[in-house]
């Protein structure tokens, strides 16, 4: 109950960060995307790897260009869907800090190996 209240408060304050998620807990499609990130592609979407602006400030504040976003396939979706992985830093995952969002940037979970 306390975790739910904390997440609700974070969403209302615009700082939603729902904690950690392990690689094994991610959907298979997110695991596939992380493998592509680790090997630096090739990526299936032309927008994969573009700068993520963090305009809502739901991730730690860093200089522009620090974060990059990648599409996580959504089965049955006709477009890119709402699922993304956002990574920060110059190194590929797992050296970089990466975050998973299933709700198009409204909340993030830190991905742990």
UniProtKB/TrEMBL annotation:
Pfam families recorded: Ribonuclease (PF00545)
Entry keyword annotation includes Glycosyltransferase: no
Signal peptide coordinates: 1-18
Gene3D superfamilies in alphabetical order: Microbial ribonucleases
Lineage of producing organism: Bacteria, Pseudomonadati, Pseudomonadota, Betaproteobacteria, Nitrosomonadales
An example molecular function term from Gene Ontology annotations: hydrolase activity
InterPro entries in alphabetical order: N1-like, Ribonuclease/ribotoxin
Stated name of the protein: Ribonuclease T1
Keyword Nuclease on entry: yes
Keywords for this protein: Hydrolase, Nuclease, Signal
């Amino acid at each position: 109950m306390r975790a739910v209240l904390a997440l609700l408060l974070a969403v209302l304050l615009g700082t939603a960060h729902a904690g950690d998620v392990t690689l094994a807990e991610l959907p298979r499609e997110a695991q596939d995307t992380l493998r592509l990130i680790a090997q630096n592609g090739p990526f299936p979407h032309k927008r994969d790897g573009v700068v993520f602006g963090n305009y809502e400030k739901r991730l730690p504040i860093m200089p522009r260009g620090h974060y990059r976003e990648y599409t996580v396939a959504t089965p049955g979706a006709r477009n890119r869907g709402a699922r993304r992985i956002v990574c920060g830093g110059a190194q590929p995952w797992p050296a970089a800090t990466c975050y998973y969002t299933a709700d198009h940037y409204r909340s993030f979970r830190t991905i742990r190996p």
